[in-house]
Amino acid sequence: MAYTMAPTVYLSCLLALLVAGLAQDIKDSLWEKDLDPDLLKLKQVFELFRAQYDRSYSNPKEYARRLEIFAHNLAQARKMEAEDLGTAEFGMTPFSDLTEEEFEQLHGHQKITPGETPGVGIKVGSEVMVESVPPSCDWRKLKGVKSPIKQQGNCNCCWAMAAAGNIEALWCIRYNRSVQVSVQELLDCNRCGDGCKGGFVWDAFITVLNNSGLASEKDYPFRGSLKRHKCLANNYKKVAWIQDFIMLQNNEQTIAQYLATHGPITVTINMKLLQQYKKGVIKATPATCDPYLVNHSVLLVGFGKTNSTERRRAKGGHSRLHPHRPIPYWILKNSWGAEWGEEGYFRLHRGSNTCGITKFPLTARVDLQGKKAPVSCPR
Asked: Which residues are catalytic, by number?
């Protein structure tokens, strides 16, 4: 318990230290005999971080490098919080000792550059009519839909985990059957053969179609190593399958309406701000989170608006947001474990294409012909 509570206490001290610029040139001064008291506080916070997230480093030089990165990241977190237009809070996370480049390499997938489209024939969901959108939707409230938060670790498989989550949710909604499908099968049998080296959601769906379904997570469990594994798709019984998949129009009203009437969908976003994210609604500008450079796939499970009590506090305890101005948001399920963010979830502002959420909204379709019963998202 001490390790979960103490970082919050010391974080305020560290942020003050960073603001004053006292943590600059840490690498050069860390090993001097007469350490500044504030640097001792920084080391104390860093030790708490290491204990909480089980970090160890090979030698003193690497320790000093990670400490410098840690200080830089917390300074960046404070800057992000000052720039954010929503209620988001940024600070110490499981990724606070990684550079931005390392974080991107380990936890996203390759960037989809401007103008690039999936290299497969995907049906655009033009048949989806924008009808009235309910004020809120949260598929987690429907029994069986809320599956455990996945942990991709150092495997670049967010694309596979998002696709698996999409299929699991749709099967539960349509057929009242809770299933957990094999992410490892998607990695081993991916048509591009990349496994933990990366991929895209449409690759996962094509793999499911090619294999006529997916085995269960229990039969074909996640290993997640960078080592290539043989495809074992034919060794196990299929527990879920799809008819096809579509890409929705890049319109947030269309996405909300489809989400509320069909179920969770996958989206691919720019994950730049997620490394330091703790909680709240991220409302970024294109300058702080480029909507064209998307590099991380997640599952969109709902939407809503903040209430008057949810507003970030500025220095001196004053409210940063007007108490009567709710912020519309999306609810997204990540694959970085339940200790990250809001118990594994996070929220993005809805209505401004924050971090490129409208770029590639994809979903499988599991309806059998003649069995398209209407569904309704819990509010």
From this structure: 158, 296, 334
